[in-house]
Amino acid sequence: MSIAQIPDGSISIPRQGIVRLLAVLVATIAIGLGCVRAQPVLRLTPLSDNVLWVGGMAASVKEGKLARVAVAFARQQDDLVAFYVEIENTARIPILVDPSRSYYAACTRLAKSRPRRCHPAQWVVDPEKVLLA
Q1: Which residue did the predictor score with more confidence, 100 or 41?
Q2: Taking burial as the number of CB atoms within 10 A of a residue's CB, which of 18, 32, 114, 124 is the most buried?
């Protein structure tokens, strides 16, 4: 394969060279895509009947005597699932929200008419410890 430079500054590559170049390029892309594995799809739907849609995300809202709590799925990274959590103090006294004393339980329900099944509660990951580690 010979490459010739034309007087106007452009380069002329023979057709056979272009075909080889494209074949190598296609093969490289095919090999690269063959190594890519699709990630599993995670879909979370709030079990609560009190769901508020904010920015295209479903947020489950629950109000108690001391606070109103809203929780929405944020993202999944490796084996961790992150949530946005907003806690509004509705009491006249200060309340302490301590991640080291917070836990969650993952629950499933196949249909509204069926009871939900919850896994054992697990402690949450303290975001400050992760950021400062």
Answers
A1: 100
A2: 124
